[in-house]
Amino acid sequence: MRCTMSHSMAVRLIYWVIILFAGCLGDQSAEDAAEFQSFDDDTQIEVPFHRLPTHVKPVKYTIDLDFVSPITETRDRDESWHYAGMVTIDVEFTSLTTSIKDTILSCFDSECREKKAFSQKRIIMHADNMVKITDVQVVTKNGDSSVVPLRIVSSGRDSGKQMIVLQMESDLPSGGEMGQIIMKFRAPILRDMHGVYLSETEVEHGQNTPVVYHHIVAKFQPTFARLALPCFDEPSFKARFKLAIKHDKSIGDHPMQAHANMPSELIRQEETHTETIFHESPPMSMHMVAFVLGPFDTTLPEKTTKSGMTLRFLGVPDMQFDGEWAVSVATNVVNVFEKYIDYTLPLKKLDVVVIDELDTDNLESWGLVFLRRHNSPLAGYDLLMDGKPSIGVNLVHTVVHQWFGNLVTAAWWDDFWLIESVSAQAAIDFMQSYHPLLYTEYFVRAGLLSDTLSLDKTGRMHPLSPTKEKLSTSAGIEELFDRLTFMKSASVGEMMVNSLGSDSYKTALQCIVKRFANKSIEFDDYIKCIRTAANEGQNLKGIEKMLHSFSKQSGYPVVNVALKYPEKSHGNSLFVYVEPFYDADSKATEQHSSLSAGKFSWCLPLMVLVANRGEDDFVKQPIKCRADGSFEEIKLPKWFDIHTSFVLVQPEPDISSYYRIRYSDELYEKLMNAILERHIKIMPKARIQIIDDTVALRQSHLVSEYQRSNMFEAFHKDRDYGVKLKLLFGAQSLRETNGDVVPRWLSSSLYDYFLQPDNYYSRQTPALNHEALSRALKELVISGDKSITSMAIDASRRFLDTRGAGHGFSFLFLAEPIYAAVVKYGDKAQIDKLLQQLKKTKYHQDKIHLAEALALSENKQVLEKLVKIMNIPKYSKKIDKEKVITPRSKLTIENGRVALKAND
């Protein structure tokens, strides 16, 4: 009996020893089962690769953050405040053999073996130096839910790569075992709109002191999650997220709310604070996690989609919104796109948050998107120059991004443009199709596309798909998130629609979503769906070549068009060749030689129209995509006569026109004569493209002065406002870069046309007309037209007085010429009012117009005051400097700060 009892006690003793050292039973957490170890923050460890190895894959994050008190402590201080957090990451341990080569930029077998050996016992994650890790714990989980601690023998950082390293005592598991990494940490609330940062939104109340509302915002896209918490901060590491946030009950007189990607599951009211716990998310990339804490208006509108998703529009208290319009647009997008793509989003809600301080126009996080306030539908904002078209495109882009960008994510940043090409093209197409009276195509073609082409000269800007070496740092990745990527990707998306046909393109997108929902996609995956959807006989090799042409190379091509035999009247051929567009004189003479050497090649879908003046004879013929970038010779019809016929390349352009067309002088003259004599009906977008191309090519001295004068002669009687406006912009650009004189009749004709009774201003007048008139009047003011200047100065007295009281908004589109008149010819008191208005106005576009006008001043004291204002951080981040500092302004940028030009 004694022996039996001793054996039983021994068994029990062994059992409890196993429990003590090996883990726990049931649902006991890893945190309870093993002790934390301290993290060595001072040790530097060189990680021999730039991307994380995939032998440790996150499956689920449980994130607990404590923000009690930071806003109340920091809103009146300059120093940062910190928050505390704990992250529990469920991970899967897999083999290194299939993943290590993906981690390394260039790797020979010996190097791969060495780098594989580095990862054998190590967990490598992301965390910036500012994220102070205090305690860490790693365990494996057995099938019966018990856990086994893994002993960490060393830890440290690779500060340059923003990585942390945990080295285990023995090799990591590699057969699909599950585990947990638990870390306690402390991180700062930043001020630079990255990571977790403090945002200020200022709202005016008539003549009263403006109210400033503070929010804590999490902006992790593209690589800023590592500034906020330890994580696997790469897009292919998709996981589920469970978030809990402790925060103050209120800030001032306003209740404090917390919003995140998912709806709240539980709001627990404690004695000193509130804890908001959110539902678990579907699998998503780390950079798509977002949240916001702060005061919000509780009366803003919401709608429900056909599939049951709730859309809400969140703004600060007392902010005036045309929220109904925004929510209606977003709801319609979800309804239309869910049907189009044949896939319902796995989201219960989508919140649109509007704040002042966002470093991009929008942020497309899953279930929680952000708009910068100047790109949101402020009451009355639709009367500003580029109001609802740009607002609508931004809003629709964030919604479509829920499918292409969030549900389906690029595996790495070199393929980010693939996803962006879908969401950007769809945003522009939706606005054109469902809101035609906003004339979105004008603003995109004459504005955003034209501006992007002006920037994207060969070798000056990044390609859509940079090399892996270029994307080895956060700075290189962040560079992709700009308007160039948006517009160029949209153009490539439209090229795909045109090349495949709308039905096949839709089938391809449905294939992508159904195969890769909650997964990541690479270029080869995209091409497989294109091949699946393509019709028989479609040039798939040409399509693939086109995608490589516009993604791997910076810049864009010039399509050169000339007659093979300029002196031959009949039996001629058209000579077409493509080459890169340089803007430097020294490069212009090298273009053809660089192309023939095989350095560049472009493939793009083009159509050429050949017609006779005054006759019905015409033919449209596609220009084949030559994969080797060589010349294309097109046989012209027998009836083609050099004296009476003309040629027009791409007669129906759209946003896919990411190139310039350069005609020989002979062909250009015939085309301009046909336009002048109205022998051809060319759609306004085609006329805009001709003007835009001629101006850009003339600026780079790639076409003659003869073509410039022909252009003005052909279009000066055009009655389309978009064409007139583009002509005026072109004239201004040529004056600034080439010293060309702006024809006075151009501004006068716009002004005279506006004064005709049937064109008189009303609220229904398209914003495009407003911009055309505003630019024409401004140009007349700058050129010294006495009658216009006198009218503008008279109007300024009433305009400035009423603007200060918040009235007179319906004629805000006249602000540009009025401000310019005051700066050029007004008295000191009026100019001082403009400087005060620059600091006071809450409208982003108004700030731009004021700063742009003041930058034209000849008075050094005025310029010094302007420079001082623009360098104050509070105002600096709210003024787009590139729009203010133009060639004819008196300002420049030195070391990131605004300064007077040296000769001023």
Automatic annotation (TrEMBL):
List the signal peptide residues: 1-26
Lineage, top-rank taxon, reads: Eukaryota
**Taking every annotated instance into account, which residue ranges of this chain make up the domain Peptidase M1 membrane alanine aminopeptidase?**
325-546
Q: Where is the ERAP1-like C-terminal domain?
A: 654-870
Q: Please state every residue range assigned to the domain named Aminopeptidase N-like N-terminal.
A: 119-285
Q: Which cofactor does it need?
A: Zn(2+)
Q: Which Pfam families match?
A: ERAP1_C (PF11838), Peptidase_M1 (PF01433), Peptidase_M1_N (PF17900)
Where located? Answer: Cell membrane
Q: How does it sit in the membrane?
A: Lipid-anchor; GPI-anchor
Put simply, this protein is called Glutamyl aminopeptidase
